[in-house]
Amino acid sequence: MNERGPSERADPASTHALKDALSDLAARGEAAAASAPESFSEDQRAAARLLGAALAGAGVDLGARRALETVESRAPKAAARKRAVVAVLGKAGSGKTHLLSWVVGELLAAGVKQITAEGEARPERSKKKTSRPVSFAVVAPTNKAASVLRARGVAATTLHRILYSPVYDPDYEALAQWLAEPGKHDKPDGVGGVSEGQLDRALELFKQTRSAPAALAMIGLRGSDFITGWKRRDEE
Hints:
The protein has 236 residues and is mainly alpha-helical. Helices cover 47% and strands 10% of the residues. It has ten helices and eight strands. The strands form four sheets. The protein has a two-stranded antiparallel sheet. Helix 5 links the parallel strand 5 and strand 6. Helix 1 crosses helix 2 and helix 8 (196-209) packs across helix 9 (212-218).
């Protein structure tokens, strides 16, 4: 008969705490599903349940629309890892984007910061035990996929643009800054032949997409007109 050594014996207190944590995650997943729109199908509600449990492990209570206040109130890391990846699969038109849009709205309502703009700096990760979840991003593999999400009201960017920031042509730098923070920068005049009406349109598009390159492209500019290169965001 094989017996566990002292270091291999399961700690009853730790096992009990893990079971409690898993039960808590499951309960928060059920709460998230219960708070989902009535229009959700059973499959969408089941996905919401899994996503709610996964996000609870990361420190966000979707059902209550709040970020869990302290590290101590979150599930143990071992429990969270078991729900770290959730794949939502389905045919075209099955409601995946609708589900994603709801999750994004709930995360924003919980006060979790979304990283969307290419030039936007990631917030610093706090080392305090009272730290909230830092941020989240909706990332697509291609610009086409990201544009489809943006057209459905989900602010999305690409893998490339979440890792790199555009280096703007000097003539367009002021325009990009104004789009990002119109209250802090003067409205540019006569940049690249862009009209007043196009500027207003670009600003409205930026509010929807949170992407200066996407907004400028939508008013007819080519990326080569205003982007000269890219730099890693972690080097900024």
